[in-house]
Amino acid sequence: MSIRIFISPAKYVQGKNAIKDIGEYVKVLGEQAVVIADETVWEIAGNDVVEQLKQENIKTEEVLFNGEASKTEIQRIAEIAKKENASVVIGVGGGKTLDTAKAVSDEVQGYTVIVPTTASTDAPTSALSVVYSDEGTFENYRFYNKNPDLVVVDTKIIAGAPQRFLASGIADALATWVEARSVINAGGKAMAGGITTIAGQAIAEKCEETLFQYAHLAYESNKAKSVTPALEAVVEANTLLSGLGFESGGLAAAHAIHNGFTALKGEIHHLTHGEKVAFGTLVQLALENHSIDEIERYLELYISLDLPVTLEDIKLKDVSREDILKVAEAATIETETIHEAFDITAEEVVDAVFAADQYAKAYKEKRNK
Ligand SMILES: NC(=O)c1ccc[n+]([C@@H]2O[C@H](COP(=O)([O-])OP(=O)(O)OC[C@H]3O[C@@H](n4cnc5c(N)ncnc54)[C@H](O)[C@@H]3O)[C@@H](O)[C@H]2O)c1
Ligand SMILES: [Zn+2]
Question: Which residues bind glycerol (predicted)?
């Protein structure tokens, strides 16, 4: 019999100025923390987090993240954490910083605290990291025996981040239901290791519903740097609903295709995770049997959020079939999530990539008439 599995972080806190209370939440976990953030994020939030921790007499070691969630970076910071005897590892920043913090925490068997400063991915809540080479090519998913112990999302900080990050998180979150639905239909396994629970399914569906209702308003709120109910709803969808929804709901083709794209060199590397996932989602929709209305519903939302929908938009205007075959081969390696929902070859993925591109071009033309 198939086993249903649902996993989640122990505590999720979200709201305007939420980091003001972080010391209180952390002090029940431990007294010695390592805080990891990159240069930009130290200024935006890292120093404030440390100040709050100090007020609760929590000792901190501050670490500058070098930008890639790679084995070398994880090892480097784990050595620091060991030397400091840290029992709490706190990651402050974007997805790569958070993934590194989770890995460091696993190395020292500590408590994991996650402070996302953008709602750009659904990395904050999951019990896994996406590990890359030092050059930024996808290497593997690294799984942990527990999810983060605490996630603190300060929506004032998120509202101050560039809107492109929020749009990227929306794209990552829009993939959640598309992928979970296909895994559920195929009886495949989710990242959590079992088939999808009713809870996992409900959360993934609610994620999608919330985004179609509020994504656009949230994007505009972000441009105005304003925290609004729409922004709060979308931050929760991008972070909590998408996080639980993908991990216990299922990943399928969209993310496998994203991972395949990281194997290509060139300008595509300047795109965010969510932007590549947006295109991957359109490719997955093209692999499935959907009506034109359904596909155009997604295209319209992506375009209204300034997200990429064509190969040209993801900086692959004149890409060759051979290069897309490389992407498709990487997306269909035996361990990839695409096989949880599809019985498929790399050639079929190549066709879907070019078809998705063409659907989007045709829609843009129709829209501009
Ligand atoms: N573990 C998971 O479950 C999971 C899920 C989804 C994505 N991911 C991973 O997450 C990574 C992508 O994360 P990302 O898109 O956040 O990018 P990122 O972590 O590469 O970069 C984020 C950038 O935003 C900047 N930044 C952060 N907060 C800011 C703010 N408030 N204002 C201005 N700048 C700010 C940072 O300095 C950094 O340059 C990928 O490696 C992806 O594989 C992991
Ligand atoms: Zn993702």
Answer: 122, 172, 255, 273
Q: How far, in Å, is the centroid of ligand 2 from the Cα of 243?
A: 9
**Cβ neighbour number for residue 75 with a 10 Å cutoff:** 12
Q: Is 91 helix (H, G, I), strand (E, B) or coil?
A: strand
| Residue 258 known to be catalytic | yes
Q: Judge if 178 and 327 occupy the same domain.
A: yes
Rounded Cα distance, 178 and 199, in Å: 16
The tally of domains found in the chain comes to 2
Please tell me whether residues 124 and 199 are part of one structural domain. Answer: no
Q: Domain range holding 100?
A: 12-160
Do the interacting molecules here have an ipTM over 0.95? Answer: yes
Whether the model pTM is above 0.90: yes
Cβ 9 vs Cβ 125: under 8 Å: yes
Residues annotated as binding site? 38, 95-99, 117-120, 122, 126, 128, 132, 172, 255, 273
State the Rg of the chain over Cα.
Answer: 20
Q: In this structure, are 121 and 220 located in the same domain?
A: no
Average pLDDT, the chain: 97
Distance from the CA of 93 to the center of ligand 1, in angstroms?
7
Q: Please say which residue of 128, 160, 192 terminates a domain.
A: 160
